[in-house]
Amino acid sequence: MKRKIKRGTWTLLALFGTLFGASLVLGMASGTEEKAGKKRSSYAPVVITEDFSSIMTRMKAAKPEIMKRQEDLLALRYDLGNHPAQGVAMSRGKPVQEGVRVKLPAGQTWEQLAALTPEQIKEKDLFPPGFFPLPHPNHPEGGMLFPKFHINEIKKQTGRDLTRFDLDFDLPDHFLPEFPPAIYLTTRPDLGDVSQGQLVTIMNHQDLFNGILNPKQLEGLRLLVTPFMQQQFNQTDDRRSELPSQGVSCFDCHANGHTNAGTHLVGDIRPQEFRHRLDTPSLRGVNIQRLFGSQRALKSVEDFTEFEQRAAYFDGDPVIATKKGVNILERGSQVHFMAEFQALLDFPPAPKLDLFGRLDPQKATEEELKGQDIFFGKGRCAACHTPPYYTDNLMHNMKTERFYKPKMINGRLASADGPIKTFPLRGIKDSPPYLHDGRLLTLEDTVEFFNLVTGIKLNDQEKKALTAFMRAL
Questions:
Q1: Residue 115: inside a domain, yes or no?
Q2: Could you tell me the sign of the dihedral formed by the alpha carbons of 403, 406, 409, 412, in that order?
Q3: pLDDT on residue 36
Q4: In the chain, how many domains are there?
Q5: Cβ neighbours of residue 106 under 8 Å, at least 6 residues apart?
Q6: Which domain holds residue 339?
Q7: Which of 203, 248, 355, 364 has the fewest Cβ atoms within 10 Å of its own Cβ atom?
């Protein structure tokens, strides 16, 4: 007599069979990529057998050499000097850096380079070093990494230490957004900057926002400034903080709902050398955006919020997340409350723009108006960056791999970037560095990059005017 199997059991068996088959295929695919007898894996080690004190001692000893390697790369690529633009500042007064900082290949000018075809540039290896993908300070290791000024303020306010014993942030402060950034609310534009010059944390958010936000929004803000476990900041022996940590908050990267340029590696690419460095994007204006994440194309800010907590905090590895203490947010309340507050974050004022996002001729300079003409004409910028917020809410592939042969750069394999989200340009002068991985330090660098990659062949005067226009957005 045959034993009957319940329908639900068949479903489980079928699911197991599907998963086993998929894992077998992935295993076979990984087997074709073996290097020196070591098989690739998408998974991080779960059980750490090395003693924590040994790990920390070893990584501290390696830190000077690792940071020197990154510093040498930055010096090779860029002019890192502090050269502020005259009369141009961010919302709270920090000077904006000016000038092309990407260094040219020996014997080349930007005009000569722009006259070459992508094939010629590739064949002659003339793609400027600063236009290549920017690696994480320690790309094989990766992980969240914060500027020193943010670490100091969090420690001062809360006693929580975001210092990593193995790495320091790499880009000089004068290329980063002002700190702390201003906060503008769509619901209370009459208040202007509501930050009162403070970094919003768990210690002061009630004092700053009680009476301005409704209770749901206030609870959403509380969750955004509450630290939760994260890959490098937790209480396990494979953390990267000297003492067991309470974790990080959303606003430890998106400082004041903007950005401090903190970095990480995107969690959704494998193997490690293909993972993109992440330049933390601003949350200003998320209410007008329809895609979230530089490449993920998440369709709502709620999806983005939940994804960050469940996956991005732990490199997209649910096993590691469980081990280290993942924070499972309740979608109908907590995620919704967090998203509701984020949707209130507005762009900074742009007094020279009219209701349609164009320059008011009575307020703009002649150079800014010329830059606007180039933006909508010869420069073809508006093909992706459409007013009034200067985004088309789509993704585009610039195919920069046309210009160079794949190469390994400090553990990062420079190859194809793939499609990247069109970020809004409103308030862009407040958000250096630029591009999804922060490889472009100034707006002038950005103009040169797109001039070369798109082949529009702007002259020096047109480039200068275009930069002036973007500063006015």
A1: yes
A2: positive
A3: 55
A4: 1
A5: none
A6: 69-471
A7: 355
pTM of the model: 0.91
Asked, for residue 62, whether it belongs to a domain, the answer is: no
The per-residue pLDDT for 343 is: 97
Is 212 among the domain residues? yes
**pLDDT score for 127:** 98
CA distance 399 to 285: 27
The pair of structure tokens assigned to 196 is 């009162």
Classified as helix, coil or strand, 89 is strand
Burial 366-392 (b: 16+ CB within 10 A, else e): ebbbbbbebbbeebebeebbbbbbbbb
Q: Which of 307, 328, 315, 168 is nearest to 238 (CA)?
A: 315
* SS3 state of residue 290: coil
CA distance 432 to 428: 8
45 vs 84: CA distance, rounded Å? 46
Contact assessment for residue 142 and residue 239, using Cβ atoms and an 8 Å cutoff: no
Cis before 433? omega within 30: yes
Give how far Cα 315 sits from Cα of 89, 296, 380, 395, 432, Å: 36, 14, 36, 23, 25
Beta-sheet strands, E only, within 48-130: 84-89, 95-97
Q: From the CA atom positions of the chain, what is the Rg in Å?
A: 24
User: For residue 197, which of 209, 208, 212, 182 has the smallest C-alpha distance?
Assistant: 182
Quick one: angle between helices 366-376 and 460-471, nearest 10? 100
What's the pLDDT at 297? 78
DSSP 365: -
Structure tokens at 7: 């329908």
Q: Residue 135's Cα: distance from chain center in Å?
A: 12
pLDDT reported for residue 1: 38
- Distance of alpha carbon 439 from the chain centroid: 11
In terms of DSSP H, where are the helices of 94-201? 110-114, 118-124, 148-158
**399 is a domain residue:** yes
Mean pLDDT by groups of 10 residues along the chain of 473 residues: 39 36 34 56 90 97 98 98 97 98 97 98 98 98 98 98 98 98 98 98 98 98 97 96 97 98 94 95 96 85 89 90 93 96 98 98 98 98 98 96 98 95 97 98 98 98 98 98
